[in-house]
Design goal:
The complex is a heterodimer of chains A (220) and B (262).
Chain A lengths: L12 H33 L4 H15 L3 H16 L5 H26 L3 H10 L3 H31 L11 H12 L2 H32 L2
Helix pairs in contact in A: 1-2, 1-4, 1-7, 2-4, 3-4, 4-6, 5-6, 6-8, 7-8
Chain B lengths: L9 E12 L2 E12 L3 E5 L6 H8 L7 E6 L2 E5 L8 H8 L2 E4 L11 H11 L5 H14 L15 H13 L5 E5 L7 H16 L3 E5 L3 H7 L2 E6 L2 E7 H6 L4 H7 L9
Classes of the chains: A mainly alpha (220), B alpha/beta (262).
Bound molecules: adenosine-5'-triphosphate (ATP) and magnesium ion.
Amino acid sequence: MYNWDFDILWGYRWLFLNGTLMTIAITAAVIVLGLLLGLFAGLMQLSRNPVLRWISWAYIEIFRCTPLLVQLLWFYYALPVLTGVELSAMTAAVMTLSLYGGSFYAEVIRGGVIAVDPGQSEAGLALGMTPAKVMKRIVLPQAIKQMIPPLMNQSIIQFKNTSLVSVLAVPDLLYQGQVITMDTFRPLEVYTVIAVIYFVVLVPLTAIVKRSEKTLQRSH
Amino acid sequence: MTGTITPDNTKIEITNLKKQFGSNVVLRDINVKVDAGSVVALIGPSGSGKSTLLRCMNLLVIPNGGRIRIGHDTFVFDDGSKMPKAKAQAHFRSNTGMVFQHFNLFPHKTVLQNVMEGPLVVKRTPKAKAEQLARTLLGKVGLDDKADSYPDRLSGGQKQRVAIARALAMEPEVMLFDEATSALDPELVAEVLGVMRDLASEGMTMIIVTHEMAFAREVADKVIFLRDGVIVEEGPARDVIDTPKEEATRAFLSHFHTRNND
Ligand SMILES: Nc1ncnc2c1ncn2[C@@H]1O[C@H](COP(=O)(O)OP(=O)(O)OP(=O)(O)O)[C@@H](O)[C@H]1O
Ligand SMILES: [Mg+2]
């Protein structure tokens, strides 16, 4: 029978907290940057310009169709060989996760925009609005209703994906856990605590997503 | 390409207009002149190109050839030439109001905001002034009490009247109606036709695509019968509807009641 001993971890509580905050900070950054990238790529997909469409298509497919772990290692270890520019582990991590998330967000945003009745853009155009104004004032506000639940889901996945950055020695929650394990030789307790922390942060978030789906259905 | 020609009394002048979708030729060499303040009814079988012609007039469809003048704005199209710039297109459209079969009200905006949207965004009218204009127009279509409702709370007839007010808010020189009453329950048709009749009597230049032959006969000055992208017959409304010259027109009209009980 294994003898659980969580007491020993109490001395590491600040490391756990540090790691958790780092994970949350990275998540926040990659969500914001990813949404920006996704908005650009998603709208480029809908552009009349075939070059823009092709560029965004290539971007989306490259990042959707290769494993995130491979992308992280490539940006950290391979890109500097190619460009001669060293990226800090943090920069490489945030950049890769943002690009990866952006490629999924782009598809959500594109889908949300094309789901809006084309009659809506026609009505905006018929008033004399420019296509950019129509997108901003008529189409996107309606598309966002459909987009928010899948964007939130994707963001929850991003939160979990941040655990991969530990392979680049970015001091996130998982990385701190590895440090603590090497100190205490208590992997079972450490990784259990880490799993619980992820769980405790995400359960309320998924509840919010569920709730927002319902309120959005009813709102204007 | 915008230019200025001093117009006589014609408000709309369409010359040699052509449109095809791929290999499907939808409009072949259309010529139409519409006098200022007159009402033209565009009739014809399904697929004859009525909507396409109407949508060419506000560039929702870009023609492959010909020329369109509305008021002082002219666009010339030919297959080789580039599409007009987005800004120029938008400016051209702001001078024509369009009313759609399915209303296309903005569901995320209130009735008042729907009507204010054009002046606010396109003309940059100050908010207070845009609101005043919108309330006046809503009064005109009999919906002042619905200003703060959202479109999903309105009946079809009310929606279409809001859509008319929204188009009028741009103070366009021309109003285009594409089967404005076709999606309505029969008992709601009259309220929309009533608003259109008022507009016509106020001297608005209007082109209406319609299957309401009795209304066309009563309100339109001119009727144009379109079939397979060609104008088969045109003339004063009563002449064309009561005594069509062409067999095709006669055959088409035989499917309709062309008179109210008068
Ligand atoms: N965007 C489009 N792309 C391809 N073909 C089109 C498009 N719009 C219209 N057409 C074709 O052009 C032809 C004329 O269509 P249009 O909508 O102008 O007819 P209509 O006279 O308005 O018919 P209805 O009475 O059914 O509304 C049809 O064959 C239609 O399939
Ligand atoms: Mg039509």
